[in-house]
Amino acid sequence: MAAVASATSDFSEYLGAHLYTEVISNVDNLTSKDLMVYPNPNDGKFYIQLKDSFVSNYKIEVFNLVGMKVLETTSSTQKTEININLLKQGVYFVRVDDGKNIYTQKIVKQ
């Protein structure tokens, strides 16, 4: 006695990966009285300083010119040191998201 089974499917097996990048296309608000990014230009180390009333847990992201995120961290202090020594010289965008506002600042690593 032998058992025979057959099946059909509309699904196919997919083996692969997706790369998701977030592109910054609008940098109208490059400066803000609530955010300071300095020194700019820098040699691989810079500081982000938020106005006292805005200090809470916030996200810091650094993007290269093609919009790829090259660094992400969080902070809950008024002044945060960011180290980008491993990145190549060039122009980057720093984005700070405090949950209510998003600030974007262009920086130059020399």
Write up what this structure looks like.
- By secondary structure, the chain is mainly β.
- It has a domain of 75 residues: Immunoglobulin-like, CATH 2.60.40.
- It has no helices and seven strands.
- The radius of gyration is 22 Å and the shape is extended.
- 14% of the residues are buried.
- About 7% of the residues have low confidence.
Distance, first to last CA: 78 Å
Briefly, what CATH class of the domain at 35-109?
Mainly Beta
**Sheet with the most strands, sense and barrel status:** 4 strands, antiparallel
- Give the CA-based shape: extended
CATH architecture of the domain at 35-109: Sandwich
Radius of gyration: 22 Å
CATH topology group of the domain at 35-109: Immunoglobulin-like
Give the neighbour order of strands across the main sheet: 4-3-6-7
Low-confidence stretches: 24-31
The count of DSSP E runs of length 2 or more, i.e. the number of strands, is 7
- Average predicted confidence as pLDDT: 81
Annotation field: number of helices: 0
